[in-house]
Amino acid sequence: MHMGRSPNEVMTKKILHTAHYFVIMNGNLQSTIRNLQSTIRNLQLRRPPMSILHLSGVRLLLPCIASSLLAIGMLVGRNYMGHQGYWFLIWNLFLAWLPYCAAIWMAWVVQRKQTSLWLTLLPIGILWILFLPNAPYLLTDIVHIFGMHFVWWYDIGILFSFAWAGLLLGVASLHIMAELIATRYGWLAGWGVVLVTAGLSGIGVYVGRFLRWNSWDAILRPRILAHDLLNIFSDPSTYPRLIGVSGFIACVMLVGYLMIISVQPRNISNSQKV
């Protein structure tokens, strides 16, 4: 006589069937995960040329334009004040732009993956290497001020090295503070800190260079320092030099700041993009 299955046997069979199903699904899931991991690794090892064009080229375009406009603006201002000359620097700057444009062109050609890739890249590469020295050549235009003596050049190198180190340290610290503010209050507040701090730094450089005040004097002799600052801002005759020096330092800091954020990875939140 055939006897029916007990409820326990039925439940056990259902549990075993469900477990078998999950084992199969788990195996398929693990296989899928392994395939995804392999695909991600391949994509990381073979980044598309677009990343080269975007990261190394286009993202540096803004600071390059800003620094060039700053240089041209200073030259125009010099001639506007009656000190004529140095217009040849614009031509030298144009030549310095050519290797950058050639590099962008080469990245664009690589991105398109043309059949005759090397036939196209070779002449562009030759143009790039030929015109590349025009970029650092602008450093040698200081010869028009100091002459060709070796000691002058060595001293210029020392001053430039220290100036570059100081600018880099200042801009890096500004970037850290702006990131802290942007993380908490948003990107608009972060940029506000950048602009205000750059302007105050320009005024601080003017006070230190021409009035010979030090940073610690704001703590040790605040009244005398405040008196001198009031005299500066109340005397219109000091405005041209004050605005010129402070504005120049502020613009240099902003250009340096743009250069730093232009090479920063873009995998951050919108609130931190300052």
TrEMBL record:
Transmembrane listed as a keyword? yes
Membrane-spanning regions, if any? 52-76, 88-110, 117-139, 151-174, 186-207, 242-263
One Pfam family, please name it.
Answer: DUF1361
Which domain of life does the protein's organism represent?
Bacteria
Has the keyword Transport been applied to this entry? no
**Keyword tags:** Membrane, Transmembrane, Transmembrane helix
What is the protein name for this chain? DUF1361 domain-containing protein
Q: Please name the source species.
A: Candidatus Viridilinea mediisalina
